[in-house]
Amino acid sequence: MAKQPPNERSGPGLFDDTEEFVGGRTERRLIVEADGGARGNPGPAAYGAVVRDGETSKVLAAEGLTIGRATNNVAEYRGLIAGLEMARELDPTAPLEVRMDSKLVIEQMAGRWKVKHADMKVLVLEAARLRPAAVTWTWVPRELNKAADALVNRALDGDPVPRQFMVDRPG
Length: 171
What we know:
171 residues; alpha/beta; six-stranded mixed sheet; two-stranded antiparallel ribbon; globular
């Protein structure tokens, strides 16, 4: 059966299958890949974040910067925050999947693990403020987080990647 186009004035049509329509367009989904690292713990630290299109996996934005002396966990949260900021700039209402190899960050942000360290609570609150209403927290093995990890290492090796968008942002 053919699918009827959405009616832009009244919202989704009766025959719209499982796709969600927002303002007459299919809802965009984004993927945030983030990582952080410190050489020494604490030590010189950096983060990397990549935002991908959820359908094509095309990189839409990336950043990899140093943050001075910090712990690995602080660097991981800084990567998450950078990824959430870039995703928000691209589409503040898009549902997100956040992929990280930090079990601590994923479990804390999903609300399954408590945040005990005072310094971490500030970062958790900042990340929570930036996240959209629809977010999925996914732990991935390190080998599946190579793009964000590469940005961390580039920054630590003296070749940082300032925030860049590969597509035009709305507004």
